[in-house]
Amino acid sequence: MLSRKKFLELAASKYTEINQLQQAPDMMAYERGLRDLMNELGRSIADRQFDDESKDRRKKKSSPPPLAK
User: Fold this and answer.
1) Where is this region: Disordered (predicted)?
2) Is residue 35 part of a domain?
3) DSSP string over 1-59
4) Domain of 46?
5) pLDDT tens, 36-48?
């Protein structure tokens, strides 16, 4: 599980980039930039959240593909 502190650290890392979007020439550029930043933030949150869970040593491993005959 992602802690509140880790989440806030990830969100704070995008804060300056989000504020720089105010200098966008038009609303479309602003929305495009905001969409891209939110996608990056969401991806990093998901990566961090699933990364913590993947440390279970009992995790099922994928089996090798069957040999061709």
Assistant:
1) 45-69
2) yes
3) ---HHHHHHHHHHTHHHHHHGGG-SSHHHHHHHHHHHHHHHHHHHHHHHHHHHTT-TTP
4) 22-51
5) 999 999 999 998 8
